[in-house]
Amino acid sequence: MTATRSPDRTESERARFRAGVRRGVPFGIAVFAIAVSYGVLARPVMGSVAPIVMSIVVFSGAAQFGSLAILGAGGSVGAAIAAGLLLNARYLAMGLALAPSLRGRPLSRGAFAMAIVDSSWAAASRGDGTFDPWYMLGVTVLQYPGWVLGTVVGVLARGALGDPRALGLDALFPAFFVTLLFEEVRGRRKVAAAAGGAGIAAVLTPFAPAGLPILAAAAAAFAASRMRP
Amino acid sequence: MSAIWITIIALALGTAALKLVGPLLLGGRSLPAQAMGVIELLASALLAALVVVETFGHGRALTVDARAIGVAFAAIALVLRAPVTVAVLGAAVAAALVRAIS
């Protein structure tokens, strides 16, 4: 998500946290709906308990949908883990960018770091290279219960639903990735990386085992990083 | 332990580690510019690959079916600045409608 309102650095921590919570309400609702679709799609592949545990301990749509796509297609555990980690490699960059804005003990810095999600990190950017950690925490705080409860609802609803294909639920999966991609792709290097990744996946799918076409798309990121911004 | 639980544990630990490295270990220092340049672009490349595989993949074949209509709906909705929820759920409705009439 793009930051539309820069957090004000003169307000108290409590006020900035509350402003973040207000900003996070629509994200919490969207995340709940997406988690319902995750629960519905994950249950046939992972059973009832595992998707809920995964939402509690991983809390990452890209990694959870990405690894589910590979496991569901019969790909290997290694490919599922590698794809999930590569999808989340952006958190390394986000954490590095956030680090100078964090104060206090390691436990406190670590707690703020764990609250990083794409939307809250972007919303907490002050636009001068610094971040408001309390505002970020506020934007995230409703998304976590939204993600976990949505997964529970999805897993439970799956039994009551008929054929997921007749309901178009298999289209939720790629549509969710389109929304993430839409938010992510800004600037010509990211457009080039996305186009290259899509091309690599399309070319390799008929020949490579499940999961590999997605991992191989990382090569497009290397290639695009050599372009001028 | 099953494949699914190994995947869950590895992704939980790995995701936490990715978030924590900067704030806990590097303390404000940054990685070489070249590495950051690649990291920034990984999500775009992999998300686009996932869109292709999940929209057109059918085992090892590429096909165009109702999923493509759903994804097209989502993309158009996003370009028209519709909320994410509308784009995602609308994709399912569009795909279901195509299957219902075909």
Write a structural description.
The complex is a heterodimer of chains A (229) and B (102). By secondary structure, chain A is mainly alpha-helical. Chain A is globular, with a radius of gyration of 18 Å. With 102 residues, chain B is mainly α. Chain B has a domain of 30 residues. A two-stranded antiparallel ribbon of chain B has the order 1-2. Chain B is elongated, with a radius of gyration of 19 Å. The mean pLDDT of chain B is 90. The chains are: A mainly alpha (229), B mainly alpha (102). Chains A and B meet through helix 1, helix 2, helix 3, helix 4 and helix 5 of A and helix 1, helix 2, strand 2, helix 3 and helix 4 of B.
Order of helices and strands of chain A: HHHHHHHHHHHHH
Count of discrete domains of chain A:
2
**Which percent band covers the strand fraction of chain B?**
under 5%
Radius of gyration of chain A: 18 Å
What's the total helix number of chain A? 13
Largest beta-sheet details of chain A: none
Structural class of chain A: mainly alpha
Count every beta strand of chain B, where a strand is a DSSP E run of 2 or more residues: 2
Strands of the widest sheet of chain B, in order across it, are: 1-2
Q: Helix proportion of residues of chain A, in percent?
A: 55-70%
Distance between the termini of chain B: 43 Å
Which secondary-structure class do the elements of chain B indicate? mainly alpha
Percent helix of chain B: over 70%
Short description:
The complex is a heterodimer of chains A (about 230) and B (about 100). Chain A has about 230 residues and is mainly α.
